[in-house]
């Protein structure tokens, strides 16, 4: 099968022919229908993620059709269209039993700890515990766009900080996660202000219904958010994983506010200097989040199918497997608005 393989850090991915994956016990093989290109893939491409060893096939935001079913799989048959979270939990450990699959100690993460979805096909372990049926009404490109950004934002807003209707949500970072948080926050009844340093992204956010936007290249972002919201946001979502946006998110909150960190800290940003005086005096809550448990997919898919949120503007570029390298390199600078999704795996 064709795959885009990482053979050297920061080098263009090589389009290679690899052996066909095999469905092990409890697993399936999917023919990929679509796969998103995410900033987390960029972390792998730069060598910042310690789980990635060369050579390696990245890609973790995917949906596909079942073409092989391994021994012990009960829920899935050849021909089923499915979507997967990027954290594949074992389904057997105490964390999984408690519904906290993202904390599973035996998890597999496509594109990081196991071969990913920048390929024609992928082997998916723990299939009964992780895969969700993909409704016919949801196009594969949109489903792949959900894979990391939308699911992570959904879990962050509803499963971690409990965003409520009427609250102010400040989104720091107007990329894929930030755009998803804007759309979902609006659907949940919140008022949303988006912060970025790229005016094109802010214009895009305004067009999608942001109540306000702040260009952090021109003003003190936290101060601007406090002024717009009349004292500070109730919830801040940090979508980049870098110190300046984490600090800004914390300082943008009103007293008793909640900040959730969605952005993945890596490289120079693993350790940060944070304004803990603001946390103390404001009695703030800081949440970390990573991924979304598979059992939460139905609530998100129902929201989409019911027309309460239109996520189609999220996907702005359909690309081929051979064009992935250019999308990864674009993350070295402020990337263009929207999400790139691989829909052609043949070239």
TrEMBL record:
GO terms for molecular function: oxidoreductase activity, acting on the CH-OH group of donors, NAD or NADP as acceptor; zinc ion binding. Gene3D superfamilies: Medium-chain alcohol dehydrogenases, catalytic domain (3.90.180.10). It comes from Aquicoccus porphyridii. Pfam families: ADH_N, ADH_zinc_N. This is Zinc-binding dehydrogenase. The lineage of its organism: Bacteria, Pseudomonadati, Pseudomonadota, Alphaproteobacteria, Rhodobacterales. It comes from the Bacteria. Its cofactor is Zn(2+). Residues 10-342 form the Enoyl reductase (ER) domain. Belongs to the zinc-containing alcohol dehydrogenase family. InterPro entries: ADH-like_C, ADH-like_N, ADH_Zn_CS, ER, GroES-like_sf, NAD(P)-bd_dom_sf, Zn_alcohol_dh. Keywords: Metal-binding, Oxidoreductase, Zinc.
